[in-house]
Design a protein that fits this description.
Shape: elongated
Helix content: 40-55%
Number of domains: 2
Order of helices and strands: EHEEEEEEEEHHEHHHHHHHHHH
CATH architecture of the largest domain: Sandwich
Strand order of the largest sheet: 1-3-8-5-6
Strand content: 15-25%
């Protein structure tokens, strides 16, 4: 059974890696070069109480498992992890000039800032392992320059402006990553424009097999698993292709079915709600009115 090592602070990760003490208690840029070549990583898993952004560029270690998934962490690949996610590594034989790095920061760094309030928008911190960001040389140079600015700022004598400058550059880095993911999504949608159709077929199959009667309305989590994507990645892809999230697509599909049932049967709205997989008819009525501006009964009466 593999040992699990919990690392909660920037100081602890420096101590574990055997590198000099951090210059800032809440953020650090760790270069994956010669200093780490003797680190033993076999039979060990890690959880970090930190956010981290890592670039692989000819470095000594590669992530082989991230959560429950295998990780093909290729050159020029960025991976993002949020606190308390499980990581597993393996050692690789590489040249002496590894240029990979990890920017690690504690949640306390951003907790009272605007960035802390909007961290949820950076959904790539919850993407699955096979949904990493693959960057071009130009993109890699851009993000590396920003990380070096962050490093320079926290390495200097701290003053009244340091915190804001560190956080603003960190937000700039994450916003660039959003742009680069958009490019990756755009490339993907050019190669395959059928995700929305494929997802609708999945929903049709779910209801054709009457799975809703046993399991209820399909959840975003379930849909992601069935489509072999993380829930947030699936939603982001659908939003890029159609302007609507996974939840929007699920609700639209259900409301369309509800309209047909309301106009072609004498079942009550409660009976239709249960038939669609709702546990509570009131929730069905709430969603129906939100999407159509009418209650189910009002919709039925408006077309009679």
């Amino acid at each position: 059974m593999k040992e699990i090592i919990h690392i909660e602070t920037i100081s602890e990760i420096h101590e574990f890696l055997g590198i000099e003490k951090p210059k800032h208690p809440l953020i650090s840029l760790i270069r994956m070069g010669d200093k780490l070549k003797d680190l033993e990583v076999d039979n060990v898993k890690y959880t970090l109480g930190l956010y981290h952004v890592s670039l692989k560029d000819n470095c000594t270690y590669t992530i082989v498992n991230y959560g429950r998934n295998s990780y093909d962490f290729q050159e020029g690949t960025l991976v993002f992890t949020a606190p308390n996610q499980m990581l597993e590594f393996k050692k690789e034989a590489v040249s002496e000039s590894g240029n990979g790095w990890t920017l690690a920061f504690h949640p306390d760094l951003i907790r009272k800032s605007n960035l802390g309030d909007i961290m949820d928008k950076f959904s790539f911190f919850s993407y699955a392992s096979n949904e990493a960001l693959h960057v071009s040389d130009d993109e890699k140079n851009t993000i590396t320059e920003i990380t070096e600015k962050i490093e320079k700022e926290f390495s200097n004598t701290l003053d009244a402006h340091s915190q804001n400058l560190i956080i603003s550059n960190l937000e700039l880095l994450l916003n660039y990553c959003v742009r680069f993911y958009d490019r990756q999504f755009y490339t993907r949608t050019n190669l395959n424009k059928d995700l929305a159709s494929e997802f609708e077929q999945f929903l049709r199959g779910y209801y054709a097999k009457e799975k809703q009667l046993e399991f209820g309305i399909p959840t975003v989590q379930y849909c992601g698993e069935q489509m072999q994507m993380s829930p947030k990645y699936l939603s982001d892809l659908l939003r890029k292709e159609t302007g609507q999230s996974t939840q929007d697509h699920i609700h639209k599909f259900i409301i369309d079915k509800a309209k047909t049932m309301l106009l072609n049967s004498k079942d009550t709205s409660s009976q239709i709600a249960y038939a669609l997989g709702f546990e509570y008819p009131q929730y069905f009525s709430k969603i129906f009115k939100k999407k159509t501006t009418m209650s189910p009964n009002e919709f039925r009466q408006s077309l009679n």
